[in-house]
C-alpha cells in the first residue's frame, strides 16, 4: 500500500517526505507534481490522498490547512528599465501599469485595476503558451511580463530574465488540502509531519507501558542485583585476635594511683616557703 502526495509547482516537499520515510518506512510514498489547474482535481479523482496547493482553490468537500506565504515577484526581460543592478527595494505595482501582462488580468487584480491597456481597451491577445517554460521565453523576448510567486520565478528562472519583488500585490499561500470524508490515519500522520509534530505527539493512541507491579518480568529485569555477602579475610581474623589480646593485657595491669601534688600544667600560684608571715 502506498500513500500518494501531490504538490503544485514551486513547492518543495522533500523535508516532509524524508520525515515520512523515517516514521512510516512500511508505507512507501508516491509523490508527483501538478500544475495549478489540476492541483485539486487529483484529490477529487483520488490520484492523491493529499495535495500541497496554492490558494485560492474551490474548497468544497475539502479540508485545508494554510502552511506558509510566498512573496510575489515580477519577471522582466534582462536589460529592462526596472532591471536595476543592486536594487533591493520592491517595485511598486503602479510602475507596471504600462506593461503587457502575459497572464489573465484576473490573476493579478492589483495590476488589472491600474493597467493602461485595460483602461483604454488596447490589450492584445496572449500568444500561444503551453507551459511556464514558454511563458518565460516570451518574457525573455520582451513580449511582456509576469507576476508570480517567488518560488515559481526561481523554478523557471533563466539567464535572460530577472525578477524583483512587487509591492502592492498580496502574498500567495501554500496549503495542504485533502477530502474531508477521506481523513485516514495516514492523512493524520502527514498532517502532523507538515505541522511539525514529533512522533511522540502523534494523534494515534499508543498502549500505556506496563508498570513494574503489573509486569513481573520487567521488574526482574530492572531490579538492582543483590550483592553477595563478603567473606571475612585472614587479616580481619588476625586484627580481631590482636585486639582481644590487648584487652586482656590491659585488664591484668594493676591500677596506678595518680598523684595530685605536682601535677604539671597547673596555673594556680603556690605559696613561697621563704616568705614570712606577718
Attribute tags:
278 residues, alpha/beta, D-Maltodextrin-Binding Protein, domain 2, 2 domains, five-stranded mixed β-sheet, four-stranded mixed β-sheet, 9 helices, 26% helix, elongated
Q: Total strand count, please? A: 9
Find the CATH superfamily of the largest domain. Periplasmic binding protein-like II
Which regions are unreliable across 5 or more consecutive residues at pLDDT < 50? 204-214, 216-223, 259-268
Question: What fraction of the residues are assigned to beta strands by DSSP?
Answer: 15-25%
What is the end-to-end distance? 128 Å
What is the CATH topology of the largest domain?
A: D-Maltodextrin-Binding Protein, domain 2
| Shape label | elongated
Tell me about the largest β-sheet.
Answer: 5 strands, mixed
Major sheet: order of its strands? 2-1-3-9-4
Fraction of residues in H or I helices = 25-40%
Name the structural class: alpha/beta
Topology:
Layout: E1 3-8, H1 14-23, E2 29-34, H2 41-44, E3 50-54, E4 62-70, E5 72-77, E6 91-92, H3 109-112, H4 116-119, H5 132-140, E7 146-149, H6 150-155, E8 161-167, E9 172-179, H7 185-194, H8 216-222, H9 234-252
Parallel strand pairs: 1-2, 1-3, 6-8
Antiparallel strand pairs: 3-9, 4-9, 5-7, 5-8
